[in-house]
Write a structure and sequence with these properties.
Elements lengths: L2 E3 L6 E3 L2 E3 L13 H13 L4 E5 L6 H9 L9 E6 L1 E3 L5 E4 L3 H15 L4 E6 L8 H14 L2 E7 L3 H10 L4 E5 L11 H8 L2 E5 L31 H20 L4 H10 L8 E2 L4 H10 L6 H8 L14 H5 L6
Parallel strand pairs: 3-4, 3-12, 4-5, 5-8, 8-9, 9-10, 10-11
Antiparallel strand pairs: 1-2, 6-7
Helix pairs in contact: 1-2, 3-4, 4-5, 5-6, 7-8, 8-9
Organism: Paenibacillus zeirhizosphaerae
Pfam family, one: Aldo_ket_red
Keywords: Oxidoreductase
Length: about 325
């Protein structure tokens, strides 16, 4: 497994990370606990060091699952990144976000307990709290860095101005945000700011929640237990249009001896050594595509050709529904 440097630090991370969200039921349907743990083990055995989670994934379940998977392993074998500030209710619903300094420390306290660890490698608010200045939220995390409970600070789904303001309070190590062949909006303003400040990019959704895998079908969109079926890109005419675009990618990938998923991941990896993408595999078979993609070196000509297969403006539908899009500072 190749490694990539985290921001301006001396930390080297695996070139791809494992996103663990789907390992908690209620996201992509039911999850298999034993297969999830086996997938984490397989990822680490293959050299993946980065494990990404959120305290609201499964309302704490995801953190406890990772803790169980790491039993018997040395703490430093895993770089654990945790998102916080999303509020949940007993019915599994969402109640907004809370980025107040007191809430930051409360969220962190519970996370340390669930993960059975003395520190979190990287801590980041999942969404910007519109009622709390980012300086206050990051300032509270910085206090936890000074106290030894957090090693690095990250941000998620925020725009260029917010990145600059946060970085002025404490060095930001990465920005976690959606980036793929289907979602390339960050190339205009966000990515240049990250590179100016020496902040890594930690993309999620590199397969656009499975659309770019080349295996999604209209029939799969009938599964009510999968949150993706409510996404604009997975519905009706939008889905048909998007699957036509994926077919272009699949044909080019097969001519190169890859599948569509591997090519989509390799394309994101090829956009810069400061990019450390997450792969949301919850089964060992899905993980295999990521591991193979991490070994592929696409030439600059290939990267350009893949990037020009279709115009991102041709992608039908937003990446989230209207309510969730309104919560994204990165889209304002």
């Amino acid at each position: 497994m190749h490694t990539r440097k985290l921001g301006n630090s001396n930390v080297e991370l695996s070139a791809v990370g494992l996103g663990c969200m789907g390992m908690s039921s209620g996201v992509y349907g039911n999850a298999d606990r034993q297969e999830s743990i086996a997938t984490i083990h397989a990822a680490m055995e293959a050299g993946i060091t980065l494990l990404d989670t959120g305290d609201f994934y499964g309302s704490g379940h995801n953190e406890m699952l990772i803790s169980e998977a790491l039993q018997g392993k040395k703490r430093e074998q895993a770089f654990i990144a945790v998102k916080f500030d999303v509020l949940r209710d007993p019915h599994g619903g969402f109640g907004g976000v809370d980025g107040r300094p007191a809430a930051v420390k409360n969220f962190l306290t519970m996370t340390l307990q669930r993960l059975n660890t003395d520190y979190i490698d990287l801590y980041q608010p999942a969404r910007l709290d519109p009622n709390v200045p980012i300086e206050e939220t990051v300032g509270a995390i910085a206090e936890m860095v000074q106290a030894g409970y957090v090693r690095h600070i990250g941000l998620s789904e925020v725009g260029a101005d917010t990145i600059r303001r946060a970085h002025a309070v404490h060095p930001i190590s990465w920005l976690q945000i959606e980036y793929s062949l289907f979602s390339r909006g960050i190339e205009r303003e966000v990515l240049p700011v990250l590179r100016e400040l020496g902040i890594s990019l930690n993309p999620y959704g590199v397969l656009d929640r499975g659309l770019l895998s080349g295996t999604w079908t209209k029939e799969r969109s009938a599964n009510p237990g999968d949150f993706r079926v409510s996404g604009p890109r997975f519905q009706g005419d939008n889905l048909e249009r998007n699957l036509e675009l994926v077919e272009k990618l699949r044909r080019v990938a097969e001519a190169r001896g890859m599948n569509a998923a591997q090519m989509a991941i390799a394309w994101v990896l090829g956009q810069g050594k400061d990019i450390i993408p997450l792969i949301g595999a919850r089964k060992r078979l899905q993980l295999d595509d990521a591991l193979r993609a991490a070994e592929i070196d696409l030439t600059s000509e290939e990267l350009q050709a893949i990037g020009s297969l279709f115009d991102p403006k041709d992608v039908a539908g937003d990446r989230y529904d209207k309510h969730q899009m309104a919560l994204l500072d990165s889209e304002k």
